[in-house]
Amino acid sequence: MTDDVHVRLRRSPAGWRSYAAVMLRARPPVTDVGSPRTITLSVQGLQLRVHEAERYSRVCGFDPQAALPVTYPHVLAMPLHLRIFAMPEFPLRPMGLIHLTNAIESTGEMRPGQPLDIDVSARDYRRTDAGLAFDMVTEIRGDGRVLWRETCCFLSRWPESAQRPAGRPPRPPKAPKDAAVLAELPVSLRTAWDYARVSSDFNPIHLSDRAARFFGLRGAIAHGMWSLARSLALPTTPATPARIATQFLTPVQLPARVAIKEWTTDGAVRRALCDMRTGRVHMYAWWASD
To answer: Would the pTM of this model clear 0.90, i.e. be above it?
Structure first.
């Protein structure tokens, strides 16, 4: 088996520098991928920039003067995600990846000026009926202990000729009829551009209908991590320590009107982003209540 790759960087890379390779670097068909290596990038001594965190909070609906949003550390890791996707050792076509699930564990608070060490790894590749799945795992440490972990599960679909015969995929579920409606809001290309500027996620499928259609979509779709952050940015948000699990079901086609709904099942608070016209759930997150 090929040796794993571990690169230690002096500073966090500029995300925009990775996009040309992310979009244009040739990759083998997913059916030809054998046993991919684990790729890890590490950065030490990164510090929070308060003004950037406040800009993120405003775009996602959090109180800029409150504690750091539980989703914000994803932004610190995003340039490392992009750098891994751009590396020749990464075996899959990044523009075809589907973000299936997300798990965040926040165990401690991050402070402005506090030196932070970040490790990001693409690992645990496994074959499924739908395609080749893998995890992008982020760990952020400060003061000698882990403060935040995230696992993003991505999928690279098999080509149609390699897929098992299957019926029509099931429709996304709807929130329970008695779910509380916490907010109703429009989502547009401007929303996507605002989020891109504070997150370094300039994936063109979120920013341009033409680009999205080029990559096989009907049109531009909202960022999944914006959907999660916006759904959590309400008066009752998960407090640290927290474990938040998220499932992404269908993309938000832009423009759209969505509703954020909440209900409790078996002691777990569930928060969903739903289509206002059909009630279908785009994504939902859940965490244990106190």
So the answer is: yes
Q: Are residues 84 and 207 in the same domain?
A: no
Tokens of 228: 């999660």
Distance of CA 110 to the CA centre of its chain: 20
Handedness of CA 143, 145, 148, 153 (dihedral sign): positive
229 vs 231: CA distance, rounded Å: 5
Query: Contact at 8 Å (CB) between 226 and 282?
Result: no
The whole-chain average pLDDT of the chain stands at 90
Domain count, the chain: 2
Which domain covers residue 41, as residue numbers? 1-166
- The three-state secondary structure class of 88 is coil
Residue 97 one-letter amino acid? L
Q: Does 236 have pLDDT greater than 80?
A: no
How buried is 285 (Cβ within 10 angstroms: 0-12 exposed, 13-18 middle, 19+ buried)?
buried
pLDDT band of residue 4 (cuts 50, 70, 90) is very high
* Sequence letter at residue 57: S
Rg of the chain in Å (alpha carbons): 19
| 84-to-32, 104, 155, 232, 280 alpha-carbon distances in Å | 20, 20, 16, 28, 34
* Domain-terminating residue out of 115, 139, 166: 166
